[in-house]
């Protein structure tokens, strides 16, 4: 793993992103990603719309435009309990992105809008793998649009809030035990509203404090498309085309962070995030036809998790700013209801980043995030599916920021 | 290139480390009845044998220095079943019209002729590691010339006058599985308590002790499974006791009227066990030789056998105008006798393995759990229901390949624990359940 990290160092390819427990993806700003995904005690650019709307009015310049993309390359490996069977995922590259624009309408008030992808997951196991009756592949994604308003007082205090409109879609495939070819494919869209609010406070020159809260958004999927492939013997009881509904919560987050300017060049920051995953209790599917046969209640019983982050920034000169960070993100999943659709382990992550400022007002932000899901034995009791999981994700990212 | 480098960074988990522990699996012998032989869908056929639980075990044993597991294979995938008295191929599920012309999914014999080559002797290919055969009871193990009455044994016996136990020494086994005794109660049960007697516990114990002595004569270790409650099988649990469906009051009244004279006799004899009918489901009318008047309605804790012709039930007035013959019914007293024998066998088996190098596989408890709660493996549910449950094949008594994999799973579990071994487990859901058209 270290080998991989140094490879990127050597290339000076540093970028910022985040891939957190469950299906949350916190890759909404390359600067934050490089510094251990810490966001609340910074106001670097318009990406504060996501990380802490309270900081938005303190962003330098009249207008700030920020955009970026990350590439998540993730791999999970599974060792089935008591057997000599192992499986690996072949996950497609997933590419969370962000786009923010903010501007000050007065010195004290800023308006902004952000489009970003805070949740997503893309897991693809082999067609004939041992867990195919639980999941073959799944892709989840959510895009959020967030208009935001922020206010600042004396360059010391900022408060901001945004309205979040989330659009999500899910697609999953799994095998059914009726014959070798039997399978079901589920596809659907959902949308809902939430909010994001934050406070930014600079009590003394060198110290920044940030708090932000993003509300839970319940994605209520209605009229999803279900396609069944079953033997003809079952075609009357299991119609080929069906509709389904399901709910998936995007959990609330409460973040609290501090940063301190140790020397003129060196800044240190820390943050804790409380992710309210206990909202994810069950994943239930209800079908329009043959419900008594097809409906399923699938316990997940996630628990809240606390993420602890440490990060730093070193400003070499007016052109180069380097960042690094580390965080620990314990698994929100329940050990007894752990499914291979979301391989969410206790994660340790390292981040690196650099911003290059070739001319005043323009930043090229590059980040690299490496996440290691620690090996653990897990089981999904209702299906008697047990084994050891381990995973890793390698996430380079690049972004541009322009202020004017 | 960057992507290629990252691909090389995949996480890895240590490989499973198989180990034979304190046992030696180099020469494995299986002794038993239908289940050991791989009988399924009312027939002994090739792929059924290849998915017998001993065959699955033999494959897993190859990871712990197990040798070849040789079976007396049939020549095709239809094989031979003898339940009707004449050789028939296996049962398959298909859409068939019933007596009312309603098309439904029903098992029936495959539409092929039995290949006589299936009964050609394969003795020359022996000795075989799988000494399992349909129709084997514990008390038949020491019968000389048993091949004369069991054509499945006749195929591979090394000498026509052999006892089945005589097939054991030539294998020179280092490890054995023994699962015998089910047919000692089942042959009685599957004929509704008529036409056979349950092997008394003392005879069972004597016969099994003798078999074990032969199996362990040169120090082989092994595993014995105890006897499940055979009355939980799909064969006894598919047709409900109240399978007599009456469409309306008029039909019920007609039956009530028809049985009025009999009911008067019953009441006259001081019994309250009269017959009565309502619209909807009703308990079937059955013959009970223990009653002076010979007829009553079945009780909710009694069992109707899958051998009962469904068309006779639907169209020929069986269970309503015509009482159902005893051969299709397990009465309370018969069920009690079966369970008592099984309890006796299982106590005897538990004593037999005590302080010996023999793992006891508690299949009684496994199958009870399956009957009550069902089992699940890798997201696939398995239970004793006919067709839907996927444990029992189309004869309702013998397992599908998936059912055999469940059995193999619990054998491996018990063997691993008893002998501190680490035989890789089977992935049960990889095995086929009931084949649907």
What would you call the structural class of chain A?
A: mainly beta
Rg of chain B (CA only): 24 Å
Which band does the percent of strand residues of chain A land in? over 45%
How far is it from the N-terminal to the C-terminal residue of chain A, by CA? 41 Å
Strands of chain B, count? 15
- The parts of chain A where pLDDT drops under 50 for at least 5 residues are 1-20
What is the strand arrangement across the widest sheet of chain A? 1-4-5-6-7-8-9-12-13-16-17-18-19-20
The overall pLDDT of chain B, averaged over residues, is 95
Give structural notes.
The complex is a heterodimer of chains A (404) and B (437). Chain A is mainly β. Helix content of chain A is 6%, strand content 57%. Chain A contains four helices and 20 strands. Chain A has helices at 2-11, 30-34, 48-51, 291-294, and strands at residues 63-70, 73-80, 86-88, 97-104, 109-124, 137-153, 157-175, 183-201, 207-214, 217-229, 241-250, 253-261, 266-275, 282-287, 296-299, 305-315, 320-329, 347-359, 362-380, 385-403. A 14-stranded antiparallel β-barrel of chain A has the order 1-4-5-6-7-8-9-12-13-16-17-18-19-20. In chain A, strand 6 (137-153) and strand 7 form a beta hairpin. Chain A is elongated, with a radius of gyration of 22 Å. Mean pLDDT of chain A is 90; it is low at 1-20. By secondary structure, chain B is α/β, with parallel strands linked by helices. In chain B, 30% of the residues lie in helices and 13% in strands. Chain B has 14 helices and 15 strands. Chain B has helices at residues 2-7, 34-37, 46-50, 53-61, 151-154, 182-189, 201-215, 234-237, 249-258, 260-268, 310-315, 332-353, 363-373, 401-419, and strands at 28-32, 91-97, 103-109, 130-132, 175-179, 221-225, 244-246, 280-282, 285-287, 295-297, 303-304, 329-330, 358-361, 375-377, 380-382. In chain B, the strands form six sheets. Chain B has a five-stranded parallel β-sheet, with helices on both faces. Chain B has a two-stranded antiparallel sheet with strand order 2-3. Chain B has a two-stranded antiparallel sheet with strand order 7-8. Chain B is globular. The termini of chain B are far apart. Chains A and B meet through helix 1, strand 2, strand 19 and strand 20 of A and helix 1 and strand 14 of B.
């Amino acid at each position: 793993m270290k080998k991989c990290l140094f490879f990127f160092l050597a290339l000076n390819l540093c970028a910022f992103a985040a891939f957190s427990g469950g299906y949350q993806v916190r890759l909404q700003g390359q600067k934050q990603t490089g510094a251990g995904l810490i966001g609340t005690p910074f106001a670097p650019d318009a990406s504060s719309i996501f990380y802490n709307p309270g900081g938005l009015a303190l962003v330098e310049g009249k207008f700030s435009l920020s955009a970026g993309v990350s590439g998540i390359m993730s791999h999970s490996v599974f060792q089935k309990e008591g057997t000599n069977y192992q499986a690996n995922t072949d996950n497609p590259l997933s590419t969370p992105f962000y786009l923010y624009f903010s501007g000050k309408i007065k010195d004290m008030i800023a308006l902004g809008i952000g489009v970003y992808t805070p949740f997503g997951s893309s897991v693809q196991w082999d067609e004939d793998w041992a867990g195919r009756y639980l999941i073959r592949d799944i892709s989840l994604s959510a895009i959020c649009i967030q208009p935001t308003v922020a206010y600042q007082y004396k360059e010391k205090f900022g408060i901001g809030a945004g309205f979040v409109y989330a659009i999500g879609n899910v697609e999953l495939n799994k095998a059914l035990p009726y014959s070798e070819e039997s399978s079901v494919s589920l596809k659907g869209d959902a949308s809902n509203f939430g909010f994001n609010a934050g406070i930014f406070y600079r009590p003394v020159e060198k110290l920044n404090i940030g708090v932000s809260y993003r509300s839970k958004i319940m994605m209520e999927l209605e009229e999803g498309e279900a396609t069944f492939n079953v033997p003809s013997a079952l075609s009357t009881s299991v119609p080929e085309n069906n509709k389904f509904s399901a709910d998936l919560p995007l959990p609330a987050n409460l973040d609290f962070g501090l940063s301190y300017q140790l020397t003129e060049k060196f800044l240190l920051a820390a943050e804790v995030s409380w992710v309210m995953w206990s909202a994810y209790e069950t994943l239930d599917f209800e079908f329009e036809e043959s419900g008594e046969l097809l409906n399923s209640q699938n316990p997940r019983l996630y628990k809240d998790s606390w993420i602890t982050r440490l990060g730093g920034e070193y400003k070499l000169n007016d052109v180069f700013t380097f960042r690094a960070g580390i965080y620990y993100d314990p698994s929100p999943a329940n050990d007894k209801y752990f499914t291979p659709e979301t391989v969410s382990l206790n994660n340790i992550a390292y981040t690196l980043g650099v911003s290059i400022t070739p001319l005043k007002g323009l930043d090229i932000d590059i980040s690299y995030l490496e996440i290691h899901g620690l090996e653990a034995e897990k089981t999904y009791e209702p299906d008697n599916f047990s084994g050891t999981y381990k995973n890793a994700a390698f996430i380079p990212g690049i972004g541009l920021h322009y202020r004017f | 290139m960057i992507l290629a480098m990252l691909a090389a960074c995949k996480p890895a988990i240590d490989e499973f480390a198989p180990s034979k522990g304190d046992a030696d699996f180099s020469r494995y012998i299986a002794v038993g009845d239908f289940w050991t032989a791989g009988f399924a869908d009312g027939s002994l056929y090739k792929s059924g044998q290849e998915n017998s639980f001993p065959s699955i075990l033999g494959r897993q044993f190859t990871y712990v220095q197990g040798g070849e597991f040789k079976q007396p294979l049939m020549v095709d995938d239809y094989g031979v079943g003898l339940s009707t008295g004449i050789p028939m191929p296996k049962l398959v599920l298909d859409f068939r019209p019933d007596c009312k012309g309603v098309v439904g999914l029903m098992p029936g014999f495959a539409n092929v002729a039995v290949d006589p080559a299936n009964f050609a002797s394969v003795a020359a290919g022996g000795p075989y590691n799988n000494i399992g055969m349909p129709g084997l009871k514990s008390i038949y193990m020491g019968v000389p010339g048993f091949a004369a009455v069991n054509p499945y044994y006749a195929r591979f016996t090394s000498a026509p006058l052999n006892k089945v136990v005589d097939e054991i020494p030539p294998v020179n086994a280092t490890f054995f599985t023994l699962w015998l005794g089910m047919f000692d109660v089942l042959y009685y049960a599957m004929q509704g308590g008529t036409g056979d007697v349950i092997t008394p516990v003392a005879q069972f114990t004597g016969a099994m002790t003798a078999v074990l002595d032969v199996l362990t004569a040169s120090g082989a270790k092994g595993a014995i499974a105890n006897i499940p409650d055979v009355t939980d099988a799909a064969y006894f649990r598919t047709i409900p006791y109240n399978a007599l469906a009456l469409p309306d009051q008029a039909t019920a009244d007609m039956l009530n009227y028809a049985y009025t004279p009999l009911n008067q006799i019953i009441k006259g004899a001081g019994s309250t066990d009269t017959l009565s009918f309502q619209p909807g489901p009703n308990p079937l009318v059955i013959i009970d030789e223990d009653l002076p008047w010979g007829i009553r309605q079945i009780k909710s804790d009694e069992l109707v056998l899958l051998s009962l012709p469904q068309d006779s039930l639907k169209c020929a007035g069986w269970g309503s105008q015509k009482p159902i013959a005893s051969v299709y019914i397990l009465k309370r007293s018969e069920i009690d006798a079966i369970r008592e024998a099984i309890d006796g066998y299982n106590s005897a088996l538990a004593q037999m393995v005590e302080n010996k190098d023999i793992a006891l596989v508690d299949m009684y408890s496994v199958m009870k759990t399956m009957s009550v709660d069902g089992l699940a493996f890798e997201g696939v549910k398995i239970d004793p229901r006919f067709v839907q449950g996927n444990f029992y094949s189309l004869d309702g008594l013998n397992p599908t390949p998936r059912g055999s994999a469940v059995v193999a799973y619990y054998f491996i579990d018990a063997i691993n624990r008893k002998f501190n071994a680490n035989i890789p487990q089977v992935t049960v859901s990889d095995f086929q359940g009931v084949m649907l058209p």
